[in-house]
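User: I'm putting together notes for a lab meeting next week and I want to include a structural view of one of the chains we've been expressing. I don't have a solved structure, so I'd like a prediction I can at least talk through. The sequence is below, exactly as it appears in our construct file.
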Amino acid sequence: MPWKVSDEVNERMHFVSRLEDGERMTDLCMEFGISRKTGYKIWNRFRLLGPRALYDQSRRPAMSPRTTSKEIQKLIVEFRKKHPTWGARKLKVELERRHPALTFPAQSTVYEILKRSDLVVPRPKCRKRGATPSGHLADSHAPNEIWCVDFKGDFLLGNRHRCYPLTLSDHYSRFLLGCEALENTKSPGAQTVFEATFRKYGMPYIIRTDNGAPFASTGLMGLSKLSVWWMRLGIIVERIAPGHPEQNGRHERMHRTLKLETCRPPAGNTLQQQERFDGFQYEYNHERPHESLDMKRPADVYTPSPKRFPEHIEQLQYPLHDETLRVSGNGHLYFNFGKCRQVYLGIALAGQHVGLREVDEHRWLVSFLDKNLGYIDKRIGRLVTE
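Assistant: Thanks for the context. Below is the predicted structure for the 386-residue chain, given as structure tokens.
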């Protein structure tokens, strides 16, 4: 039973003093509201240790057989310094892989060791946001079903030149397929990177991008030279909603780690920065455990695509249309429909073949692959999308 008043030390002193004066243990225990067991415990401690026994004793054991050794703690701290963006769980899993003969403490203990060593930076609390519907976006169930691509924000190198990192990752396995330091975001440089990646790993069924250049444009259906090339290769182009990068959250999360480990501070020139990107790519794929993969590494899950890059792309045919015409190099489609001689489709379709089918006396449907681009209205001489 508890003591009747809050100042327990004074009460215990009073209790012991009256026992020394000869009062009975049973009567005093009833008066102070405690059990005889507690009363004898206080009395025996006082006789053994004196007045200091009246204070609350520490419950901490004098020895703990499960205390983490200094050697293990040192190993954890050194490994964290080598991988400053890895959390306690990743560190524990990878240390156990590398040192199977050693026993490492629980994840919570690893975190406390890092915290005591000032190696944990508390994250600021962020306001929770409601989930953004993204029903039009597909989900992946195997490698190469979806690739996520983006340009990580550009930054200045030590030589004052700008660097534009183009990144490609597999949605399912998180495997980082490429990270290339480019000088700009124009289509030719990006297409060279994609062609090399397609030749090395095969091609995905879907590519997911944002709405920026060179992946999209403000032209017809948002088509760009790069996205048209993907479509000609048989790849479905999928875009996230404008202003909602969380719909490509897996890729954006990788960008945050990439920025911390390779861009702060930036390298002196493009070649040095690319060397950092290459080192990060290897570590990210082959060494870094991933929580969403049950602490497997992306390289343990990813396999190349069976969909191989073609050496030649066949010319488009439209057997169900009345005409097949080639879009000129300046993005115009030329024909002879009475007074209507040409319409502008956009530079993204330059050199591509489109199909035309007459739907009524004044309108022709224009199609590219399986997509209907709009209607040529001979009365107004331009392309309409309604």
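A couple of points you could mention at the meeting. The CA atoms of residues 365 and 375 lie 5 Å apart. Residues 70-116 form one domain.

User: Perfect, that's what I needed.
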